[in-house]
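Hey L., structure's done. Input below.
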Amino acid sequence: MSKSNDERAAHAVDVWSGENRCDPVAMFRHHPLVVPEEELTQAIESERFIIPRYDVFDVELPTLANWLEFNLPSSPISKETRDALLSDILYVAQQVDTINPTKWFRLRIFTERPTTRCGFHVDTVPPGAPTWGAIKVYNGTGTLWVSPKDVRSMDLFYRHLQRHENHRRLQLPDQGHSPCENLTEFCLPYATINHVEPGTTAFFKHINADRHGSDHPTDQAWIHSSPSDGPSRLVVNLSPGANPARYRPT
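Output:
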C-alpha cells in the first residue's frame, strides 16, 4: 500500500530529526552554497543583485529549472556563484518533493529590504495539495517563528492576522511596530521568538487554503514572519502547486 503525503512527511521528520533541528510544523537543514557566499551576500546587501517579486505558479521541475536559468540575474555575480545558486534552489525543490512527492511547484523569489508589511502569518497550498514546503533566506536576518505549543489558539491567531491585514489594506501607519510586539494577542505569556539562521532551509507545514481562517489545531501550520528591518535579503519560497485534475478539496 502506498504511503499518504502525511505518512511520507512523518517518515522524513523521523529520518531528519537525528541530525537536524525539528519541530512539529518545521524542520531545519543548513546546506551552504558550494562556492564562497560572500560574493552573493555583498551583491544582495549592496542592492546590486536585484530580483523583483516573482510568483511562479504550478510548474514542473524542468520548467522551474528553465525559468531560473532565464530569470536569475547574470551580474554582478560570477557564473560560478550564479550556477551554485540555481543548483541550490533546485536542490530545495527536490527536498520538498522528497518530503511529500509533488509534480507541481509554486516559486516565490525576490530581493528586498525587510519591512513591517509581512507580519506573522501562515502559508497556504491549494485544497488537497501536499502541505510541506520550504523557505530559504540567503543572507541578513532569517525568518522569525513561534512554536505551536506556544500558540493559544488558531482562532486568536487569525483574528490577529485579520487586524494586521486591515491596517495594511487601509494603509494605516504601522508606527514602527515589529512583528514581535503583538504576540500576546495569540501566544501564551512565556512564548519565545525563534530565528532561522540565514543559509538554513526551513521545511514547514502549510495549511490547505480551504482551512485557512478556521480554528484548526496549532500543529497544522507554521506561524512565521519576516523581520522588520535590516539589509536587503534574497528570499526563496517553494511550495507544492496544484494540478486541478489531480487534487481534490479536503
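The domain at 5-240 is CATH 2.60.120 (Jelly Rolls). The helical segments are 5-16, 38-45, 61-71, 79-99, 154-169.

-- N.
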